[in-house]
Protein backbone atom coordinates (compact mmCIF):
# COMPACT_ATOMS: atom_id res chain seq x y z
CA UNK A 1 0.00 0.00 0.00
CA UNK A 2 1.18 3.53 -0.67
CA UNK A 3 1.84 5.05 2.70
CA UNK A 4 1.28 8.63 1.69
CA UNK A 5 -2.28 8.73 3.01
CA UNK A 6 -1.53 7.32 6.43
CA UNK A 7 0.00 10.39 8.03
CA UNK A 8 -0.98 9.61 11.61
CA UNK A 9 0.69 8.30 14.72
CA UNK A 10 -0.16 4.63 14.71
CA UNK A 11 1.35 4.07 18.13
CA UNK A 12 -1.87 5.25 19.76
CA UNK A 13 -4.24 3.42 17.44
CA UNK A 14 -5.99 0.37 18.97
CA UNK A 15 -5.54 -1.54 15.73
CA UNK A 16 -1.78 -1.49 16.20
CA UNK A 17 -1.92 -3.89 19.12
CA UNK A 18 -3.67 -6.44 16.94
CA UNK A 19 -1.22 -6.36 14.03
CA UNK A 20 1.34 -8.57 15.72
CA UNK A 21 -1.21 -11.35 15.96
CA UNK A 22 -2.07 -11.39 12.27
CA UNK A 23 -0.82 -14.29 10.18
CA UNK A 24 0.87 -13.97 6.84
CA UNK A 25 -0.47 -17.35 5.82
CA UNK A 26 -2.15 -20.35 7.38
CA UNK A 27 1.14 -21.90 8.45
CA UNK A 28 2.89 -18.86 9.88
CA UNK A 29 2.26 -17.44 13.33
CA UNK A 30 5.20 -15.25 14.26
CA UNK A 31 5.25 -11.79 15.83
CA UNK A 32 6.29 -8.66 14.05
CA UNK A 33 9.97 -7.87 14.56
CA UNK A 34 10.89 -5.21 17.04
CA UNK A 35 10.57 -1.58 16.05
CA UNK A 36 13.70 0.18 14.87
CA UNK A 37 15.38 2.51 17.36
CA UNK A 38 14.83 6.23 16.97
CA UNK A 39 18.48 6.74 16.05
CA UNK A 40 18.02 4.49 13.03
CA UNK A 41 14.99 6.50 11.94
CA UNK A 42 17.05 9.68 12.10
CA UNK A 43 19.73 8.05 9.99
CA UNK A 44 17.05 7.12 7.48
CA UNK A 45 15.93 10.70 7.08
CA UNK A 46 19.48 11.98 6.95
CA UNK A 47 20.17 9.59 4.08
CA UNK A 48 17.60 11.10 1.74
CA UNK A 49 20.28 13.13 -0.01
CA UNK A 50 22.33 10.09 -1.00
CA UNK A 51 20.19 9.18 -4.00
CA UNK A 52 20.82 12.37 -5.93
CA UNK A 53 24.37 13.04 -4.77
CA UNK A 54 25.79 9.63 -5.52
CA UNK A 55 27.79 9.19 -8.70
CA UNK A 56 29.36 5.83 -9.32
CA UNK A 57 32.88 5.54 -10.63
CA UNK A 58 32.29 2.04 -11.98
CA UNK A 59 30.99 1.34 -15.50
CA UNK A 60 27.50 -0.07 -15.65
CA UNK A 61 27.14 -3.69 -16.72
CA UNK A 62 24.10 -3.71 -19.00
CA UNK A 63 23.86 -7.47 -18.74
CA UNK A 64 23.28 -7.12 -15.01
CA UNK A 65 20.28 -5.57 -13.26
CA UNK A 66 22.53 -4.35 -10.45
CA UNK A 67 23.97 -0.94 -9.74
CA UNK A 68 27.78 -0.74 -9.67
CA UNK A 69 29.28 -2.18 -6.49
CA UNK A 70 30.32 1.22 -5.11
CA UNK A 71 26.87 2.81 -5.44
CA UNK A 72 25.30 3.48 -2.01
CA UNK A 73 22.13 1.67 -3.08
CA UNK A 74 23.89 -1.33 -4.59
CA UNK A 75 22.87 -3.64 -1.75
CA UNK A 76 19.21 -2.70 -2.35
CA UNK A 77 19.12 -2.64 -6.15
CA UNK A 78 20.72 -6.06 -6.51
CA UNK A 79 17.59 -7.73 -5.14
CA UNK A 80 15.38 -6.23 -7.88
CA UNK A 81 12.61 -5.54 -5.39
CA UNK A 82 11.54 -2.38 -7.23
CA UNK A 83 11.29 -2.10 -11.00
CA UNK A 84 9.79 0.20 -13.60
CA UNK A 85 7.86 -1.42 -16.44
CA UNK A 86 7.01 1.22 -19.02
CA UNK A 87 3.45 2.55 -19.30
CA UNK A 88 0.14 0.87 -18.53
CA UNK A 89 -2.88 0.81 -20.85
CA UNK A 90 -3.82 4.30 -19.67
CA UNK A 91 -0.42 5.84 -20.50
CA UNK A 92 0.75 5.91 -16.86
CA UNK A 93 4.17 4.84 -15.65
CA UNK A 94 4.16 1.46 -13.90
CA UNK A 95 6.18 0.93 -10.70
CA UNK A 96 6.42 -2.69 -9.51
CA UNK A 97 7.23 -3.87 -5.97
CA UNK A 98 8.10 -7.58 -5.59
CA UNK A 99 7.65 -8.81 -2.01
CA UNK A 100 9.11 -12.24 -2.81
CA UNK A 101 12.46 -10.65 -3.63
CA UNK A 102 12.86 -9.12 -0.20
CA UNK A 103 15.57 -11.06 1.67
CA UNK A 104 15.33 -11.93 5.39
CA UNK A 105 15.18 -8.91 7.69
CA UNK A 106 18.78 -9.20 8.85
CA UNK A 107 20.03 -9.09 5.24
CA UNK A 108 18.18 -5.92 4.18
CA UNK A 109 18.53 -2.33 5.33
CA UNK A 110 14.88 -1.32 5.36
CA UNK A 111 15.72 2.36 5.73
CA UNK A 112 17.70 2.26 2.51
CA UNK A 113 14.85 0.35 0.89
CA UNK A 114 12.52 3.21 1.76
CA UNK A 115 14.94 5.75 0.33
CA UNK A 116 15.32 3.61 -2.81
CA UNK A 117 11.55 3.50 -3.23
CA UNK A 118 11.37 7.26 -2.77
CA UNK A 119 14.17 7.67 -5.31
CA UNK A 120 12.11 5.68 -7.79
CA UNK A 121 8.90 7.56 -7.17
CA UNK A 122 10.63 10.95 -7.17
CA UNK A 123 11.25 10.49 -10.89
CA UNK A 124 7.59 9.95 -11.66
CA UNK A 125 5.38 11.55 -8.99
CA UNK A 126 4.84 14.65 -11.14
CA UNK A 127 3.14 12.38 -13.69
CA UNK A 128 0.24 9.98 -13.37
CA UNK A 129 1.56 6.58 -12.29
CA UNK A 130 0.41 3.11 -11.25
CA UNK A 131 1.85 0.95 -8.46
CA UNK A 132 1.66 -2.85 -8.71
CA UNK A 133 2.47 -4.79 -5.54
CA UNK A 134 3.11 -8.54 -5.88
CA UNK A 135 2.28 -9.68 -2.35
CA UNK A 136 3.15 -13.38 -2.66
CA UNK A 137 6.44 -14.17 -0.95
CA UNK A 138 6.06 -11.81 2.01
CA UNK A 139 6.73 -14.00 5.05
CA UNK A 140 7.38 -13.58 8.74
CA UNK A 141 11.11 -13.73 7.90
CA UNK A 142 11.24 -10.86 5.43
CA UNK A 143 8.38 -8.57 6.44
CA UNK A 144 9.48 -5.14 7.73
CA UNK A 145 8.82 -4.05 11.28
CA UNK A 146 5.68 -2.19 12.28
CA UNK A 147 7.89 0.73 13.28
CA UNK A 148 9.27 0.88 9.75
CA UNK A 149 5.75 0.89 8.30
CA UNK A 150 4.72 3.64 10.70
CA UNK A 151 7.63 5.84 9.70
CA UNK A 152 7.11 5.03 6.04
CA UNK A 153 3.57 6.37 6.37
CA UNK A 154 4.95 9.65 7.62
CA UNK A 155 7.73 9.78 5.05
CA UNK A 156 5.47 9.85 2.00
CA UNK A 157 3.75 13.22 1.75
CA UNK A 158 1.09 14.55 -0.60
CA UNK A 159 3.31 14.75 -3.66
CA UNK A 160 3.59 10.95 -3.69
CA UNK A 161 -0.14 10.30 -3.38
CA UNK A 162 -1.47 13.05 -5.63
CA UNK A 163 -0.77 11.41 -8.98
CA UNK A 164 -0.85 7.74 -8.06
CA UNK A 165 -3.94 6.68 -9.96
CA UNK A 166 -4.14 3.07 -8.82
CA UNK A 167 -2.53 0.60 -6.43
CA UNK A 168 -2.96 -3.03 -7.49
CA UNK A 169 -2.35 -5.66 -4.82
CA UNK A 170 -1.76 -8.94 -6.62
CA UNK A 171 -2.54 -12.25 -4.85
CA UNK A 172 -3.83 -10.62 -1.64
CA UNK A 173 -3.94 -12.86 1.42
CA UNK A 174 -6.23 -12.68 4.41
CA UNK A 175 -3.38 -10.86 6.17
CA UNK A 176 -3.23 -7.96 3.73
CA UNK A 177 -7.02 -7.73 3.50
CA UNK A 178 -7.34 -7.66 7.30
CA UNK A 179 -4.54 -5.10 7.54
CA UNK A 180 -6.36 -2.76 5.20
CA UNK A 181 -9.62 -3.25 7.08
CA UNK A 182 -7.92 -2.31 10.35
CA UNK A 183 -6.38 0.75 8.72
CA UNK A 184 -9.57 1.77 6.93
CA UNK A 185 -10.39 4.56 9.41
CA UNK A 186 -6.94 6.04 8.76
CA UNK A 187 -7.07 5.94 4.97
CA UNK A 188 -8.73 8.79 3.14
CA UNK A 189 -11.79 7.87 1.11
CA UNK A 190 -10.13 9.25 -2.02
CA UNK A 191 -7.06 7.06 -1.65
CA UNK A 192 -9.09 4.04 -0.60
CA UNK A 193 -10.81 4.10 -3.99
CA UNK A 194 -7.43 3.68 -5.66
CA UNK A 195 -6.72 0.31 -3.99
CA UNK A 196 -7.59 -2.72 -6.12
CA UNK A 197 -7.24 -6.44 -5.36
CA UNK A 198 -6.05 -8.66 -8.20
CA UNK A 199 -6.56 -12.37 -7.55
CA UNK A 200 -5.01 -13.73 -10.74
CA UNK A 201 -2.35 -12.43 -13.11
CA UNK A 202 -4.77 -12.58 -16.04
CA UNK A 203 -6.82 -9.83 -14.37
CA UNK A 204 -3.86 -7.46 -14.77
CA UNK A 205 -4.29 -7.51 -18.55
CA UNK A 206 -7.02 -4.90 -18.21
CA UNK A 207 -4.39 -2.58 -16.74
CA UNK A 208 -1.06 -3.49 -18.29
CA UNK A 209 0.30 -6.04 -20.72
CA UNK A 210 1.76 -8.76 -18.49
CA UNK A 211 4.43 -9.54 -21.06
CA UNK A 212 6.07 -6.19 -20.31
CA UNK A 213 6.31 -7.08 -16.61
CA UNK A 214 9.19 -9.24 -15.41
CA UNK A 215 7.00 -11.24 -13.06
CA UNK A 216 9.07 -13.38 -10.65
CA UNK A 217 8.91 -17.12 -11.33
CA UNK A 218 7.65 -17.72 -7.78
CA UNK A 219 4.68 -15.44 -8.44
CA UNK A 220 3.83 -17.15 -11.73
CA UNK A 221 4.11 -20.58 -10.09
CA UNK A 222 1.83 -19.47 -7.27
CA UNK A 223 -0.68 -18.11 -9.77
CA UNK A 224 -0.69 -21.46 -11.61
CA UNK A 225 -1.17 -23.24 -8.29
CA UNK A 226 -4.17 -21.08 -7.45
CA UNK A 227 -5.71 -21.82 -10.83
CA UNK A 228 -5.11 -25.55 -10.48
CA UNK A 229 -6.91 -25.58 -7.12
CA UNK A 230 -10.11 -24.23 -8.65
CA UNK A 231 -12.91 -26.29 -10.09
CA UNK A 232 -13.07 -26.16 -13.90
CA UNK A 233 -16.26 -24.09 -13.76
CA UNK A 234 -14.60 -21.51 -11.52
CA UNK A 235 -11.46 -21.05 -13.59
CA UNK A 236 -10.65 -17.36 -14.22
CA UNK A 237 -9.96 -16.42 -17.84
CA UNK A 238 -6.40 -16.88 -19.00
CA UNK A 239 -4.44 -13.96 -20.37
CA UNK A 240 -5.59 -13.57 -23.97
CA UNK A 241 -3.10 -14.87 -26.51
CA UNK A 242 -1.46 -12.34 -28.79
CA UNK A 243 -3.67 -12.02 -31.84
CA UNK A 244 -2.09 -12.27 -35.29
CA UNK A 245 -1.33 -8.87 -36.85
CA UNK A 246 -4.02 -7.31 -39.00
CA UNK A 247 -3.17 -6.54 -42.65
CA UNK A 248 -2.98 -2.82 -41.87
CA UNK A 249 -1.77 -3.09 -38.28
CA UNK A 250 0.37 -0.21 -37.09
CA UNK A 251 0.95 -0.78 -33.37
CA UNK A 252 3.48 -3.46 -32.49
CA UNK A 253 4.86 -3.63 -36.03
CA UNK A 254 8.57 -3.05 -36.91
CA UNK A 255 9.39 0.33 -38.39
CA UNK A 256 10.91 -1.33 -41.43
CA UNK A 257 7.60 -3.06 -42.22
CA UNK A 258 5.64 0.15 -41.76
CA UNK A 259 7.96 1.90 -44.17
CA UNK A 260 7.52 -0.84 -46.77
CA UNK A 261 3.75 -0.44 -46.54
CA UNK A 262 3.91 3.32 -46.91
CA UNK A 263 2.89 4.42 -50.41
CA UNK A 264 5.67 7.00 -50.60
CA UNK A 265 8.23 5.09 -48.52
CA UNK A 266 7.96 7.63 -45.70
CA UNK A 267 10.33 6.48 -42.90
CA UNK A 268 8.39 8.26 -40.12
CA UNK A 269 5.25 6.22 -39.23
CA UNK A 270 1.83 7.79 -39.70
CA UNK A 271 1.01 7.59 -35.96
CA UNK A 272 4.02 9.73 -35.14
CA UNK A 273 3.23 12.22 -37.90
CA UNK A 274 -0.43 12.53 -36.89
CA UNK A 275 0.21 12.95 -33.16
CA UNK A 276 3.20 15.27 -33.49
CA UNK A 277 1.41 17.45 -36.05
CA UNK A 278 -1.61 17.85 -33.75
CA UNK A 279 0.44 18.35 -30.60
CA UNK A 280 2.68 20.92 -32.31
CA UNK A 281 -0.38 23.05 -32.97
CA UNK A 282 -2.55 22.38 -29.92
CA UNK A 283 -0.34 20.99 -27.16
CA UNK A 284 2.79 23.08 -26.79
CA UNK A 285 1.24 25.30 -24.13
CA UNK A 286 -0.62 22.51 -22.30
CA UNK A 287 0.73 22.26 -18.75
CA UNK A 288 1.85 18.74 -17.95
CA UNK A 289 1.68 17.50 -21.53
CA UNK A 290 2.84 13.83 -21.56
CA UNK A 291 2.32 13.59 -17.79
CA UNK A 292 -1.40 12.88 -17.76
CA UNK A 293 -3.22 9.68 -18.64
CA UNK A 294 -6.08 9.35 -21.12
CA UNK A 295 -9.40 7.54 -21.27
CA UNK A 296 -8.45 3.92 -21.93
CA UNK A 297 -11.56 3.32 -24.05
CA UNK A 298 -10.58 6.15 -26.37
CA UNK A 299 -6.98 4.93 -26.51
CA UNK A 300 -8.11 1.45 -27.56
CA UNK A 301 -10.56 2.91 -30.08
CA UNK A 302 -7.85 5.03 -31.73
CA UNK A 303 -5.47 2.05 -31.82
CA UNK A 304 -8.19 -0.09 -33.39
CA UNK A 305 -8.82 2.52 -36.07
CA UNK A 306 -5.13 2.77 -36.93
CA UNK A 307 -4.78 -1.02 -36.98
CA UNK A 308 -7.78 -1.26 -39.32
CA UNK A 309 -6.25 1.13 -41.81
CA UNK A 310 -8.62 4.00 -41.00
CA UNK A 311 -7.53 7.61 -40.94
CA UNK A 312 -7.45 9.27 -37.52
CA UNK A 313 -8.06 12.98 -37.11
CA UNK A 314 -7.07 14.24 -33.67
CA UNK A 315 -8.50 17.66 -34.49
CA UNK A 316 -11.97 16.11 -34.42
CA UNK A 317 -11.35 14.79 -30.89
CA UNK A 318 -9.55 17.86 -29.54
CA UNK A 319 -7.87 15.85 -26.79
CA UNK A 320 -4.21 16.74 -26.25
CA UNK A 321 -3.64 14.05 -23.61
CA UNK A 322 -5.13 11.37 -25.88
CA UNK A 323 -2.71 12.24 -28.69
CA UNK A 324 0.20 12.34 -26.21
CA UNK A 325 -0.67 8.89 -24.83
CA UNK A 326 -1.07 7.46 -28.35
CA UNK A 327 2.42 8.69 -29.25
CA UNK A 328 3.98 7.15 -26.13
CA UNK A 329 2.02 3.93 -26.60
CA UNK A 330 3.14 3.59 -30.20
CA UNK A 331 6.79 3.92 -29.18
CA UNK A 332 6.44 1.52 -26.27
CA UNK A 333 4.69 -1.15 -28.34
CA UNK A 334 7.38 -1.28 -31.00
CA UNK A 335 8.78 -4.85 -31.05
CA UNK A 336 12.25 -3.32 -30.73
CA UNK A 337 12.85 0.08 -29.10
CA UNK A 338 13.47 3.09 -31.32
CA UNK A 339 17.08 3.28 -30.10
CA UNK A 340 17.43 -0.51 -30.71
CA UNK A 341 18.82 -3.28 -28.53
CA UNK A 342 22.10 -2.96 -30.40
CA UNK A 343 22.81 0.41 -28.74
CA UNK A 344 21.64 -0.63 -25.27
CA UNK A 345 25.09 -1.20 -23.77
CA UNK A 346 26.53 1.98 -25.31
CA UNK A 347 23.68 4.09 -23.97
CA UNK A 348 23.61 2.79 -20.41
CA UNK A 349 27.37 3.32 -20.24
CA UNK A 350 27.23 6.74 -21.88
CA UNK A 351 27.94 8.54 -18.60
CA UNK A 352 31.53 7.26 -18.80
CA UNK A 353 32.11 9.24 -22.02
CA UNK A 354 34.08 12.46 -21.31
CA UNK A 355 31.85 15.50 -21.54
CA UNK A 356 33.88 17.06 -24.34
CA UNK A 357 33.35 13.94 -26.48
CA UNK A 358 29.68 13.30 -25.75
CA UNK A 359 28.20 15.08 -28.76
CA UNK A 360 30.56 13.31 -31.15
CA UNK A 361 29.91 9.90 -29.62
CA UNK A 362 26.16 10.49 -29.49
CA UNK A 363 26.12 11.61 -33.12
CA UNK A 364 27.97 8.45 -34.10
CA UNK A 365 25.57 6.26 -32.16
CA UNK A 366 22.34 7.69 -33.58
CA UNK A 367 23.74 7.74 -37.13
CA UNK A 368 24.35 4.01 -36.82
CA UNK A 369 20.61 3.43 -36.44
CA UNK A 370 18.56 2.00 -39.32
CA UNK A 371 17.34 4.79 -41.60
CA UNK A 372 13.71 4.65 -40.44
CA UNK A 373 14.80 4.65 -36.76
CA UNK A 374 17.08 7.63 -37.32
CA UNK A 375 14.42 9.58 -39.20
CA UNK A 376 11.77 8.84 -36.56
CA UNK A 377 14.12 9.71 -33.69
CA UNK A 378 15.10 12.99 -35.33
CA UNK A 379 11.45 13.82 -35.99
CA UNK A 380 10.51 13.10 -32.38
CA UNK A 381 13.44 14.89 -30.75
CA UNK A 382 12.95 17.97 -32.94
CA UNK A 383 9.35 18.12 -31.77
CA UNK A 384 10.29 17.60 -28.11
CA UNK A 385 12.74 20.50 -28.42
CA UNK A 386 9.74 22.66 -29.33
CA UNK A 387 7.91 21.35 -26.28
CA UNK A 388 10.79 22.22 -23.94
CA UNK A 389 11.12 25.66 -25.56
CA UNK A 390 7.70 26.34 -24.01
CA UNK A 391 8.61 24.85 -20.63
CA UNK A 392 7.81 28.04 -18.73
CA UNK A 393 4.19 27.39 -19.67
CA UNK A 394 3.92 23.61 -20.03
CA UNK A 395 6.46 22.79 -17.26
CA UNK A 396 8.14 20.18 -19.47
CA UNK A 397 11.88 20.83 -19.39
CA UNK A 398 14.37 18.56 -21.13
CA UNK A 399 14.88 16.72 -17.84
CA UNK A 400 11.15 16.15 -17.42
CA UNK A 401 10.76 15.01 -21.02
CA UNK A 402 13.69 12.62 -20.59
CA UNK A 403 11.98 10.97 -17.61
CA UNK A 404 8.81 10.49 -19.67
CA UNK A 405 10.38 9.40 -22.96
CA UNK A 406 13.59 7.65 -21.86
CA UNK A 407 11.85 4.35 -20.97
CA UNK A 408 9.84 4.59 -24.21
CA UNK A 409 12.92 5.00 -26.39
CA UNK A 410 15.01 2.17 -24.95
CA UNK A 411 14.47 -0.87 -22.75
CA UNK A 412 16.17 -4.18 -22.12
CA UNK A 413 15.15 -7.38 -23.80
CA UNK A 414 13.18 -8.38 -20.69
CA UNK A 415 11.13 -5.14 -20.95
CA UNK A 416 11.17 -4.15 -17.27
CA UNK A 417 14.03 -2.05 -15.90
CA UNK A 418 15.50 -1.46 -12.50
CA UNK A 419 16.71 2.03 -11.59
CA UNK A 420 20.22 0.93 -12.47
CA UNK A 421 19.28 1.12 -16.17
CA UNK A 422 16.63 3.85 -16.11
CA UNK A 423 18.98 6.51 -14.74
CA UNK A 424 21.54 6.17 -17.56
CA UNK A 425 18.81 5.93 -20.22
CA UNK A 426 17.07 9.06 -18.98
CA UNK A 427 20.40 10.86 -18.76
CA UNK A 428 21.23 9.95 -22.36
CA UNK A 429 17.81 11.19 -23.47
CA UNK A 430 18.27 14.49 -21.64
CA UNK A 431 21.66 15.09 -23.23
CA UNK A 432 20.20 14.19 -26.63
CA UNK A 433 17.53 16.84 -26.11
CA UNK A 434 20.09 19.38 -24.87
CA UNK A 435 22.38 18.80 -27.84
CA UNK A 436 19.87 17.89 -30.58
CA UNK A 437 20.86 20.90 -32.69
CA UNK A 438 24.40 19.49 -32.89
CA UNK A 439 23.60 15.76 -33.02
CA UNK A 440 21.21 16.02 -35.97
CA UNK A 441 23.27 18.34 -38.19
Structure description:
- 44% of the residues lie in helices and 7% in strands.
- Mean pLDDT is 81; it is low at 1-66.
- It is α/β, with parallel strands linked by helices and 441 residues long.
- The protein is built from 22 helices and 5 strands.
Architecture blueprint of SSEs:
Elements (H helix, E strand, L loop, with lengths): L15 H4 L18 H9 L3 H4 L20 H4 L4 E6 L5 E6 L11 H13 L6 E6 L11 H10 L2 H5 L1 E7 L3 H10 L5 H4 L2 E4 L18 H12 L26 H7 L8 H13 L13 H12 L6 H4 L2 H13 L11 H5 L9 H10 L3 H19 L1 H4 L3 H12 L9 H16 L1 H4 L2
Structural class: alpha/beta
Tell me the helix content: 40-55%
Summarize the helix and strand pattern as letters: HHHHEEHEHHEHHEHHHHHHHHHHHHH
- How would you sum up the major sheet? 5 strands, mixed
| Strand adjacency order, main sheet | 1-2-3-4-5
- Give start-end ranges of low-pLDDT stretches: 1-66
Can you give the mean pLDDT? 81
| Strand residue percentage | 5-15%
How would you sum up this structure in a few lines?
This protein is α/β, with parallel strands linked by helices. It contains 22 helices and five strands.
Question: Notable features of this structure?
Answer:
441 residues; alpha/beta; 5-stranded mixed beta sheet; 5 strands; globular; disordered N terminus
